[in-house]
Q: What sequence folds into this?
């Protein structure tokens, strides 16, 4: 070996590159998760922090591990929590589907537009991110409230005789989520649609497929990865969304994010809030990991 | 240059010589503009049933635009396309009895080989059993039996080419369009595929129109060639006609190699024409009539393989169909040697000489004074 030093350092770099993402995941994902899981398994206590340690010394100098599964049991028993989960999943799923229905034509149009105009169109999609998320949701209050812009317009047009209740409804929550998360659907869809070779559509037409058939048999199946990515990017954060239902939703819209907030800040029940968070995470991660595993195996085959 | 390729068919009928024959495809005044550029400029062309017709040209010659208008992907600005009595121009691509084999093959990556080939038949709504039977028959024809469940990304380049061919043929189109059908294959595979493509064309009896920039491909495969430049047809004819009787300098030098000289017609008689070179003090004798009357400016094209080269003493002069010069470059190709002879006016003549014997030392070498001669029939007179 004429030059052992560069080889060794090269191996070190390669090792670092391999280790770094795992280290990142361990420090910023696994560790916080374990801390939250630990809190979920402890008991409420008065003091700071407001929960009892799960490892403690008894008077006989015996180290004992006290796990409180009561929170998880309550989650399973109380319809209130189960309903919150189901409602959150439904709201997130419906929002993701709405985003898909609106975002697909947008992404398709951008991908089919002349190449020099695409950066501008993409920037317009991302433009709302330049203002504060909170501010944009607040703005919807101004639009939707009884004396708001939209009601003013409806009254002026004579469509409605008295203000229509728009704010603090489920519809307002959907509107807010779709509005805020739409770019997360458009961008991955655009990425897959832009990569799609237009010659494939010509080939489909050449073989006798009308435009709609060509779309359904070629474009749509080939954009499934983008659809899946966009769906995840909207669905996952929407399940735990707190701000939008809090500001735009009615009091009946008890979603997981809101329940969690109440347990944490109003009831100061950190273990219960943590149990909610851990369960939510597992509800999302396990099916997604399973799905990824299955698709990876199918593509390898 | 023209080797006895797959295009040399036994006793091939030549309907284009028969004035009574009805063309299968009749193109009239076909024009397509892109902004300022006229990609296809008023083309008239007749193609007969069962032909393997080649559109040959460089990039930007308009050959691909012409093909895309036949497929229906480009709308002509003017002109008509009549196929078997039907005007194709208003017909959308998905209703034309025309199929295309794309240069990139455009196989659907999410479908198996059988699904790709059967795609066109599914659009027709045929029963499953018939689709399966026709797909299997087609895969046998292109020798891909047994690969029907593979996906395109698990195939070699040659196999993909066959899938693309099978997919475009399975609908039994009246016209099959091939865009650079062999362009993506490596050289060793190309020759075998040329023969096979011609073989399949003959077995199915389908009329093929092929676009290519490769003159050898066009010469060896096609019944007739249309040489295209600047959106127009420079010349249409059989490979031998276009090669041996080019009508312009462009065609003469686009197909193979040609030495081009400029001259003035001095005598036009029953036994051919005599042309005097303006730059060289030489005379060219042809056995054909000149394209212009006496005194007219013409061009003379002579193919390198029709010339002879011999050593001469120093100070030899030009003559009739005879040029004197010195050897400047020698290129050894294995099957022939190309001599580049410097002429007194600064131009060069290229002469090829087949290596019939096993040479070790070339009999003629650099800086040798040589004379280049050729028979009258090799002198081709061109108006432009």
A:
């Amino acid at each position: 070996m004429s030059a052992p030093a560069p080889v060794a350092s090269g191996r070190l770099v390669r090792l670092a590159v391999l280790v770094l993402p795992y280290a990142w995941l361990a420090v910023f994902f696994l560790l916080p998760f374990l801390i939250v899981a630990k809190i979920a398994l402890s008991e409420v206590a008065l003091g700071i922090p407001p929960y009892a340690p799960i490892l403690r010394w008894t008077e006989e100098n015996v180290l004992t591990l006290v796990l409180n599964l009561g929170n998880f049991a309550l989650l399973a028993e109380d319809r209130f929590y189960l309903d919150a989960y189901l409602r959150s999943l439904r709201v997130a799923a419906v929002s993701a589907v709405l985003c898909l229905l609106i975002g697909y034509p947008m992404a398709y149009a951008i991908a089919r537009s002349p190449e020099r105009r695409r950066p501008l169109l993409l920037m317009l999609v991302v433009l709302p991110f330049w203002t504060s998320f909170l501010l944009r949701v607040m703005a919807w209050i101004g639009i939707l409230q009884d004396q708001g812009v939209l009601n003013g317009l409806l009254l002026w047009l004579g469509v409605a005789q008295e203000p229509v209740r728009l704010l603090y409804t489920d519809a307002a929550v959907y509107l807010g989520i779709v509005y805020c998360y739409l770019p997360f659907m458009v961008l991955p869809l655009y990425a897959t649609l832009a990569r799609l070779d237009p010659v494939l559509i010509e080939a489909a037409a050449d073989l006798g497929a009308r435009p709609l058939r060509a779309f359904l048999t070629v474009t749509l199946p080939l954009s499934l990865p983008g659809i899946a990515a966009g769906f995840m990017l909207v669905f996952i954060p929407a399940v735990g969304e707190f701000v939008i239902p809090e500001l735009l939703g009615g009091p009946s819209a008890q979603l997981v994010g809101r329940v969690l907030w109440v347990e944490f800040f109003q009831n100061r029940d950190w273990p219960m809030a943590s149990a909610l968070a851990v369960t939510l995470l597992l509800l999302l991660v396990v099916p997604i990991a399973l799905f990824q595993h299955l698709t990876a195996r199918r593509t390898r085959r | 240059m023209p080797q006895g390729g797959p295009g040399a068919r036994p006793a091939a009928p030549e309907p284009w010589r028969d004035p009574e024959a009805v063309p299968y495809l009749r193109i009239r005044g076909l024009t397509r503009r892109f902004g300022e550029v006229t990609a296809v400029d008023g083309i008239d062309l007749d193609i007969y049933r069962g032909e393997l017709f080649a559109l040959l040209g460089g990039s930007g010659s308009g050959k691909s635009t012409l093909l895309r208008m036949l497929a229906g992907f480009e709308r002509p600005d003017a002109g008509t396309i009549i196929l078997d009595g039907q005007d194709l121009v208003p017909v959308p691509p998905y209703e034309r009895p025309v199929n295309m084999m794309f240069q990139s093959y455009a196989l659907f990556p999410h479908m198996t080989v059988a699904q790709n080939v059967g795609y066109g038949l599914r659009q027709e709504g045929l029963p499953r059993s018939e689709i399966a039977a026709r797909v299997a028959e087609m895969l046998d024809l292109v020798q891909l039996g047994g690969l029907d469940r593979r996906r395109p990304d698990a195939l070699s380049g040659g196999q993909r080419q066959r899938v693309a061919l099978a997919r475009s043929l399975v609908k039994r189109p009246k016209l099959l369009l091939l865009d650079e059908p062999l362009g993506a294959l490596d050289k060793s595979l190309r020759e075998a595929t040329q023969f096979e493509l011609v073989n399949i064309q003959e077995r199915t009896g389908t009329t093929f129109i092929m676009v290519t920039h490769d003159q050898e491909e066009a010469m060896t495969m096609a019944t007739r060639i249309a040489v295209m430049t600047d959106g127009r047809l420079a010349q249409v004819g059989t490979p031998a006609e276009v090669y041996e009787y080019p009508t312009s300098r462009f065609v003469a030098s686009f197909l193979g190699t040609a030495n081009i000289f400029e001259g003035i017609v001095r005598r036009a008689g029953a036994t051919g024409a005599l042309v005097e070179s303006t730059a060289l003090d030489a005379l060219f004798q042809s056995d054909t009539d000149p394209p212009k009357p006496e005194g007219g400016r013409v061009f003379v094209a002579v193919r390198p393989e029709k010339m002879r080269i011999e050593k001469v003493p120093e100070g030899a002069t030009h003559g009739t169909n005879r040029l004197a010069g010195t050897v400047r470059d020698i290129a050894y190709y294995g099957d022939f040697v190309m001599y580049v002879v410097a002429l007194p006016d600064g131009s060069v003549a290229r002469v090829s000489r087949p290596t019939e014997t096993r040479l070790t030392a070339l009999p003629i070498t650099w800086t040798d004074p040589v004379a280049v001669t050729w028979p009258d029939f090799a002198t081709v007179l061109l108006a432009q």
